[in-house]
Amino acid sequence: MSTAFDAIIIGAGQAGPSLAGRFSSAGQRVAVVERKHVGGTCVNTGCMPTKTLVASAYAAHLARRADDYGVVLGGGVGIDMKKVWARKQAVTMNARTGLEDWLGGMPGCRLIRGHARFTGPHEIEVDGERLNAPKIFLNVGGRALVPDMPGLDGIDYLTNTSIVELDTLPDHLIVIGGSYIALEFAQMYRRFGSEVTVIERGPRLTSREDPDISDAIRDILAKEGIDIRLGATQLAFACDGGGVAVTVAGEGQSPMRISGSHVLVAVGRVPNTDDLGLDKAGVHTDERGYVIVDDELRSNVEGIWALGDCNGKGAFTHTSYNDYEIVAANLFDADPRRVSDRITAYALYIDPPLGRIGQTEEEVRRSGRKALIGKRPMTRVGRAVEKGETQGFMKVIVDADSHAILGAAILGVGGDEVVHGLLDGMYAKALYTTIQRAVHIHPTVSELVPTMIGEMQPLV
């Protein structure tokens, strides 16, 4: 016996509850299947807990700089990791509970706890119960990639999921990986008081970024006392007393043994698609396991869509939510929205943060188009000087002929917010001259964006 629904949503991450709400408000029956926590990565192990921890780390960092601002503290700065953890947990649980209550109050919506597996193109089984629907939506997210490295399976290592559950402070955190998740935790724990070593196999950090951005990020982290080892193409792990040891080697490098108390593996993500029985539904995935979808997020099987981290179209909360918007617009609103309408936009939440939109400088160079580039160090931004936070710089690139904005990177105080003015201009298809002539509020970081545009030079 199989229970019929109008729609089944597998996974209660960023896209799932909102999509369930649309089916509910349309008077349709919808099942939401979640095998672990409602809210997915963002609420439980991603954005919300990590940015809450980042905020605590920033408070500690600012307290240590109190004398720079003429503020006198009565003693040294201490960290109570149990209170830090409790604050993080409260933020996460409030969000998770809110989503659970929302889903529970939706007419016609049933939240089912368990592991969904396909038995056919339009039927799933959840712990022995069979459900069917003409529309099935995969919103199953992803998890940390744990590569096969010598000795790793013989130690207790951390991932982004387990490290946010720590309520004690590592003496020495060794971070494997030099990209976004890795660097956020590296700086966070350094500010909490841990010794931190970052080990990256590539020649620079954040290889997705332009070299000048990568270099600036490295300088920011190194100034805080983070030890950074690049070009580490060979790693081996072993227990070392009550801790761990990592042997590091690379081309032209002699092997070096680094001892620490904890190891965080943050070298990438993989989709949670390997245990859903997709073969029984006939759903195609690529070589990395991502569900292959078209511009409207439909899989190769009629009536099955994939949203969020499992479709390879973006690994961010905002892209997952936009996936919901695209699907809902096409299904309910006769509004033909598509993934290809989306402009690349994301942030790196070290301090200061990086806000990135559109094309990088390297991508524009490879395209061969005529372009103009503007750069301005944060030392020449009044608001940054006033706040005593002058690390980083701003950069914008535009098309020399069409005057269209091609991309921007703002690494500096408020960079994750300031960049949206340029992003909105790109969506509005505004010319850079429109931004240049805007009158921004003083004193802000944003007010120097038109000045930077006015100082652009040909990209050579």
TrEMBL record:
UniProt keyword list: Disulfide bond, FAD, Flavoprotein, NADP, Oxidoreductase, Redox-active center
Give all residue intervals belonging to the FAD/NAD(P)-binding domain: 6-320
Q: Does the keyword Nucleus apply?
A: no
Keyword Mitochondrion belongs to the record: no
Q: Which cofactor does it need?
A: FAD
All copies of domain Pyridine nucleotide-disulphide oxidoreductase dimerisation, residue ranges? 345-452
Coiled-coil annotated residue ranges, if any: none
Pfam families for this protein: Pyr_redox_2 (PF07992), Pyr_redox_dim (PF02852)
Looking at the record's lineage, which domain of life comes first?
Bacteria
Q: Which NCBIfam families match?
A: PRK06370.1-4
Instruction: Please give the family membership noted in the entry.
Output: Belongs to the class-I pyridine nucleotide-disulfide oxidoreductase family.
Protein name, as recorded: FAD-containing oxidoreductase
The species this protein belongs to is Labrys neptuniae
